[in-house]
Fold:
Amino acid sequence: MPLSRPAAREHIHTRNVTCQGFRREDGLWDIEGHITDIKTYGFANHDRGEIPPGVPVHEMWLRVTVSDDLVIRAVEAATDYAPFNGCDAIAPAYESLVGLKLGPGLRKQIRDRVGGIHGCTHLTELMGPVATTAFQTIFPIRSRKAEEKRLAKAGEDQPSQARDVLPKNQKMPLVNTCHGWRSDGEAVKRIAPNFYTGEDDIDGTRES
Structure:
């Protein structure tokens, strides 16, 4: 267990967020997100009556279809459980996200289209992990395909370098997006040396 031993406590609430990435036969990618909020106690709800312990207060789904260029091609949203009647009526609004590109500025663009009364708080929050799951799903496969293509063109059977070292001309959008991917860190030095900004050591190679 990575955390320290907790103080004496009572379990009240569980939020589960699950995201999965799929490569489709037509060349597109489906990223599916699922969110639930569950209480350990029962309570009365005006629109639903008594909600027993363990029954979701919220349960929502998203399927976002993107192309290789990370542009959203289709969105499907669904609400199975919500605290108010009519919450599920807003699901079609998420089709307005079609055409957006996953990347910098995405959160603001999502808020502009389905923020506030124009969307569901939980579906909108779910777009965050869905987007990061898209990156985790697509980039490794694209990199592998690019490496296989390069090897085939060069007539090689095996990679000439470690598989996680990027070709010099490959873009690296992850640099400086977190501490691990900082431009002067060991990961960038090893994986994407062209983007490394650490200091040079004595023999002329750079090190952080």
